[in-house]
Amino acid sequence: MASNSQRRSASSDSRSKRSAQPRSARSSRSSAPRRQQPRSRAADARAQQRVRQVSVGGSKGTPNQVHMSSVRVGDIRRDARRTSGAPTARRAVAANPWVRRIGIAFAVIIALVIVYVALYFSSLFPVAKVTVTGATHLTSSELTDLAQVPQGTTLLRVDTAGIESRLESNAWVSHAQVNRIFPDTIELSITERSIAAVVDVTSTEGQQTEHWAIAGDGTWLLNIPDENSSDASSVSDQIYQDASQVLHITDVPYGVKPVVGAHCSDESVINALDIVANLTTELSGRVTTVSATDAANTIITLDNGVQIAFGSADTAEEVREKEQVCLELMNEHPEVTYINVRVTDRPTWRSL
């Protein structure tokens, strides 16, 4: 029996020694210091960026498992900057060509302004000649004196608006335009009024008859002096030629006072001008005189001596209607000497 218990004790001792030996060896190995492996900064960065997963609640594989990850704040900000900056960069690139074009255009404008200002205050392009076009009733010397182009001025500094205003202050000038002709010429381009009629006006002084030229728009042009007077030398020959070919308005009411450049305000004279201006047939060129005692009693005389009591003509249509009645009566009665169309639907006539 003793031997058996001794054998069991010996065997358990040997097992305990064998089991104790690996633990001590493992303990000695685990307690031995590990050799540190060198790690680069890139490896550290990769390690910091690695996603750490943490299981919260429940056992492995259960439905309530939640995974969490961590990201560095610097990475989030950098990604946000990249995302928000992309559209802005694209817009800047897209707008770049237009910005360049606008900048170039602005620079060109500034350069031109600088050049113009430099030329404006320089003595380049001095005015040496003044020419006149379009004038028939006013002489070139009259218009040049009226223009008053300053001595020593240049084509760039000359006041064209002021010259045009002074020219148009003359009754004969309907429109004036000043043209610069480089390198040294100013051109006065004139549009003149023409004589529509000569009005015989009884003057309030001395009871004499004055012959006033009037334009189609009712502007008094001038008192035409007698051709044998000393004042005739200052009047263009064209004025006398025109006056001999246009109609005469006679018998105007006493007290009409023409003023050069003013618009005629007398109703009888204006009515006579409107009648002649609105005639469209052969009658328009055959009227020689118009008696304008008043608008309602206006009488026109043709070149063959036929008198037409035309009366007032408020509209162009009314003038043409009366004109047509006169032509029909003259065709039907060639010997007619007097026609009254004051009332269109009841005309009267008288023959030889």
Write the layout of secondary structure elements.
Elements: H1 2-31, H2 41-49, H3 73-120, E1 129-133, H4 140-147, H5 160-168, E2 173-181, E3 185-192, E4 195-202, E5 209-215, E6 220-223, H6 237-243, E7 247-250, H7 267-278, E8 287-291, E9 299-302, E10 307-309, H8 316-332, E11 336-340, E12 348-351
Parallel strand pairs: 1-3, 4-7, 7-8, 10-11
Antiparallel strand pairs: 2-3, 4-5, 5-6, 8-9, 9-10, 11-12
What does this structure look like?
This protein is α/β, with parallel strands linked by helices. It has 3 domains: 94-123; 129-192, Ubiquitin-like (UB roll); 195-351, Cell division protein FtsQ/DivIB (Rossmann fold, 3-Layer(aba) Sandwich), CATH 3.40.50. It is built from 8 helices and 12 strands. Mean pLDDT is 80; it is low at 1-7, 16-36 and 51-67.
Short description:
It is built from eight helices and twelve strands. The chain is an alpha/beta fold and 352 residues long. The termini are far apart.
Task: Write the CATH architecture name of the largest domain.
Answer: 3-Layer(aba) Sandwich
The unreliable regions are: 1-7, 16-36, 51-67
Order of helices and strands: HHHEHHEEEEEHEHEEEHEE
Looking at CATH, which topology of the largest domain would you report? Rossmann fold
C-alpha Rg (nearest Å): 56 Å
CATH fourth-tier homologous superfamily of the largest domain: Cell division protein FtsQ/DivIB
Strand arrangement within the widest β-sheet reads 6-5-4-7-8-9-10-11-12
Mean pLDDT: 80
Care to count the β-strands? Answer: 12
Shape: elongated
Q: Classify the beta-strand content into a percent band.
A: 15-25%
> What is the straight-line distance between the termini?
194 Å
Number of self-contained structural domains = 3
Q: What is the count of DSSP helices, taking H or I runs of 4+ residues?
A: 8
Class by SSE composition: alpha/beta
Helix content: 25-40%
Question: Biggest β-sheet: count, sense, barrel?
Answer: 9 strands, mixed
CATH class of the largest domain: Alpha Beta
